[in-house]
Amino acid sequence: MEIKLLKKGYKNNEQFYKDFLEDQVKNKEEYFSDEVAFIDVTPDFPIYIAQGSESTKSELFHQAFDAISDSYLHTNRDIHFDELFWHSLLAVYKRDYLLEQYPQINDGLNHFNNIVLKDFNWENYIYKCVLGAQYINDAISDVSERKRYYSLIIDNLDVFNYIIKYEIFRNDKFLINILDIIDELKLSKVLKSKITGRDDLGKDERVGRRVIFEFNKSYPIIMSPMLEKDDLKELFLQYLVYYYQDTKQLQLIE
Amino acid sequence: MIYKKDANFPYPLLTNTSTSYESSNFILDVNLHENSYNYRFEISYEIDSQFVNKLIENEQAQLVLVIQSKDNKFFYIKPEDKYIEIQKSRISISNRTTIQLHLQSKAEINFKDNDDLSYFYSQFKEDIVVLRNSILGFSNVVIFEGSSTKPLELFEKKVNPDIKSDIKIELGSETIIIHYKNEQLQFNDSPMSNTLNNPYIYMGLQKALYRFIVNNSDDGEQVDLEQIDAPTDNLDLKFYNLMKKKMINELSIDNIDEVIYSISDKILEKYAGAVRGLSLNGN
Fold it and tell me: Which of B59, B240, B251, B253 is in the most buried spot, having the most CB atoms within 10 Å?
């Protein structure tokens, strides 16, 4: 199908928001440029996964990973990694679905911005799922293994966010290596835990974020994104003890 | 990550600007081709150091091609590899793509037999040992700018009766857009209409440069143009190139007006001349 692309100026636009609510966007030529994107099918999937219990969110993430893998990932990156494509698809073609799933869009422009027209970066759920699905799909061919890795991403979302936030770590091999290390050493809980007794750091510092940050600091002397898993694991543990000193737990690891 | 400037390393590095090697050449050349499904990056490189080339031959060092667009891709390159292909579903080159060749150690490397180092190291090169998985050198950066549709234009003018002020200056993705509530405000009926718009141009430059500082500095106050990487934002990139061309080293809240004076062609002087000319003509 053909997705008509929006013209610049739709963001933070009260009238556009009003027309979205009143189902008028598609009738107003002035919102569109002459350009279109082509895509075979565009199934619905969760695009905003901020609320609900952990198990609900996990289920929604799996739905998103599956739909993206099945129907979007094979298109050119100029489409599925492009903000304009997603904003156009959502605001013009997914209105009913979005209003039904996320009724808070009715409550104001800020909700509309935050759910429908969210900037396409690491904080955007579609972006997270596109990158996650892409990295896992390209490296893992077995379907049930893919699901296991999706679960690892979901269970370690905080670390995943930090990995895709830093440009140098936005890479399939690095992500999979880190997920493997966390899984093998059962570090998920440790990495999510808050750092205590370090007033020199920020208020809500998590162990996992700081470990990724250490990799960032030591690059390029240590070319971590290109390392083999075992080399990476050694460094990972070295950085981990900077921020986590519960020796009982760490002995279990070693 | 791509290196555009010389970082300090605790051991000699082979780069195109390094003084550690007697003849320091690590040149990468890339040609981009495409078909319906793939981009093909044809690569050729040249490394001057025999010592380094030998390391690659003996597999003590590994060439890594880094392709950075919206994410990073790494490819281990063997000397006989002539190109790598990437599906269009995995890379987009509509934005800036940067490419660099890195050299990574695969074993601990002693520099005692490195006869290519500059004289400075001759006395103590046997003491230089580089650990495994460290960077030994990097090439120049090859850049594909993507389809920036307006490479030179800085400004666009539009009439937009819906704006809530007479003039609205918008920072677009590639240009500064000046919205006028009506055509009269553009002085279209005057022979000097272009020059008479210069104050708006000035305001647009000011706004864009303020944002440049915010986007590209740590403290929101000043940007050392020698130190920062080329910005990814297309409008910022145009200013970056323009300022570099005009040999401006620093942009700060304090020197914005001087910078505008340097990068623009006496726009206020011309404006003053135009107004004076009109008033002398009794117009």
Answer: B251
Distance, CA of A120 to CA of A6 (rounded, Å): 15
CA distance A134 to chain B (A): 8
Name chain A contacts of B133, Cβ cutoff 8 Å. 222-223, 226-227, 231
How confident is the model at residue A249, as a pLDDT?
61
**What is the CB neighbour count within 10 angstroms for residue B225?**
19
Does B89 contact A227 at a Cβ distance shorter than 8 Å?
Answer: no
A220 contacts in B (CB within 8 Å)? 1, 3, 7, 102, 135
Pair of tokens at residue A63: 């739905």
Residue B260: which H helix or E strand, with range?
A: helix B256-263
Tell which of B9, B75, B89 to mutate to test the A interface (max A CBs under 10 Å). Answer: B89
Chain A interface, best mutation among B63, B72, B160, by max A CB count within 10 A: B72
- Interval B179-234: pLDDT, tens: 999 888 888 777 667 778 888 989 999 999 999 999 998 888 999 998 888 888 88
Average pLDDT for A48-64: 95
Tell me what the pLDDT averaged over chain B comes to. Answer: 87
ipTM of the shown complex: 0.84
Strand partners, B72: B68
Q: Which pLDDT tens digit goes with each residue over B141-165?
A: 998 876 544 555 788 888 888 889 9
Task: Report the predicted TM-score, pTM, of the whole model to 2 decimal places.
Answer: 0.73
Whether cis (ω within 30° of 0) applies to the bond prior to A220 is yes
B62, B71, B73, B98: best mutation site toward chain A, by most A Cβ within 10 Å? B71
Q: What is the interface size between A and B, counted as CB pairs within 8 Å?
A: 67
